[in-house]
Amino acid sequence: MHKSQLNSSRTQRSADEVPSGNRRNFLRTAGLTTAAGVAFLAVGCKKDDEPIVTPSTVDLGSGDVGILNYAYALEQLEAAFYTQVIATPYSGISASELALLTDIRDHEIIHREFFKAALGTNAIKGLEVDFSKIDFSSRASVLGTAKVFEDTGVAAYNGAGKLIKDGGYLLLAGKIVSVEARHAAVIRDLLEPFTTSFAGDDIIDGNGLDAAKKPADILAAVQPFVKTPLSGANLPTS
Asked: Please, what are the domains in the chain?
């Protein structure tokens, strides 16, 4: 990645969101590669795919832009979650765990800002999250929720891939889902170290393939964590 692209992505994050410090190399390298596609994506967003917004519900829109807004909504949720995790670390958090979770937070913020910039005026509004059922002081609660979010994110990208018409968009989605899969593996390893849970049979099928879920199923799963009602009624289904 060119330094100018990396700097452009980082300037969109506030100083209090992204502290300086060392990062785990494998996460850092994977997470920052996605920023390279912002300019390409921005060119393709069309006004006629602009999402419909009502006072009570946010419609994600249609076509490829609808799918991009779908991904943007999920990245908003994840970025907000990890930002809170780092702002109020759980009891007994180790230095290595804090470093890993900070890396993941930084990646999710980059992904969020990536979609926001790419969508431009077609982007849905910032979502209001609801984390009232999460105990941020508890390691089990935080990592358990992180596991749900990461596994859901991977399944969401996998399921949406076949709905993307533009090959360039599909390539970039593939780069992002690979980072999300790294996150999922790390979180699972934190919960159950020295086991095979990082690629457990609850997410990997007998053919060695990861789970893929439809947008309707994903939106239903994440809605309890989002106060803003989301509608994927106009998203493509095939």
From this structure: 3-8+26-44+65-231 (1.20.1260)
Q: What angle in degrees, to the nearest 10, is found between the helix axes of 215-222 and 139-160?
A: 160
Q: Which two tokens stand for residue 221?
A: 């799963």
pLDDT band at 41 (very low <50, low <70, confident <90, very high): low
Which residue is it, tokens 């979650």? 81
Round to whole Å and give the CA distance between 20 and 150.
Answer: 24
* Nearest-angstrom CA–CA distance, 164 and 61: 13
Task: Give the H or E element holding residue 178.
Answer: helix 167-191
CA angle 20, 81, 76 (to 5 degrees): 95
Query: Amino acid letter at 188?
Result: R
pLDDT tens for each residue of 75-99? 999 999 999 999 999 999 999 999 9
| pTM, to two decimals | 0.80
pLDDT in tens, 180-214: 999 999 999 999 999 999 999 999 999 999 999 99
Give the integer Cα–Cα distance in Å for 135 and 141.
6
Q: Is 237 exposed, middle or buried (0-12, 13-18, 19+ CB in 10 A)?
A: exposed
Cα torsion 117, 56, 81, 210 to 10°: value is -80
Q: Which residue has better confidence, 121 or 31? A: 121
- In angstroms, how far is CA 23 from the centroid of its own chain? 19
CA dist list (Å): 22 to 99, 102, 109, 182, 234: 8, 10, 17, 18, 43
